[in-house]
Amino acid sequence: MSISKKYAVAMFASGSLVGGPLFGLLFDRWNVPKLITASGVLCIFLGSFLFILQNEIAILMGRFLAGIGAGIEGGIVGLIAKSSSPTSRPKKISILYGLKQIGVVLGPLMISIFLGGVKTKCFKENSYDEELCILGINNHNSTGYFQMGFSGILLLACPHFRARSRN
Q1: Cα–Cα separations (whole angstroms), residue 9 to 16, 102, 143, 155, 162
Q2: What are 132's strand-pairing partners?
Q3: Is 53 exposed, middle or buried (CB count within 10 Å of its CB: 0-12, 13-18, 19+)?
Q4: What angle do CA 47, 53, 55 make, to 5 degrees?
């Protein structure tokens, strides 16, 4: 087993251990939730890009950086607590964690469907190949591509989020 496979989960957890308090502090100190949320999502995006590179050190650093971005979850829960009334707060936090669990289930499912059911032809000499030749997608880096895609969409949506203050 290579180093990256052994320690990838530990690096992600270590990154979220750093990111949770960091983003919580940023949310408490400054009232710019869009910018802080966008920076957390950007960490996930860049960490996913490093995951694609297939270098063991890049994979470990990418998992750590994505973990820092995932640590934003605690700050978002705090933001929900500050900006919602006591009666609507449980519903909003339940929706947040429900969406997180849907992502945990659908992410690997989509990857297995995409890689298990789709085989493409490479344009070089019409040879049959398991990889998507243009992007180099394979079983090892497909997770990074999917995570980059979803975090890219979320990054584009960040400026449109509205944080309402409690009245």
Answers
A1: 11, 20, 13, 24, 33
A2: 137
A3: middle
A4: 105
Q: What is the pLDDT of residues 85-103, one digit of tens each?
A: 899 999 988 988 888 888 7
pLDDT tens readout for residues 66-75: 999 999 988 8
- 113 close to 24: Cβ distance less than 8 angstroms: no
Q: Whole-structure pTM over 0.85, yes or no?
A: no
Judged on CB neighbours under 10 Å (0-12, 13-18, 19+), 164 is exposed
Greater model confidence, 150 or 29: 29
Please name the residue that has the structure tokens 């990111």: 19
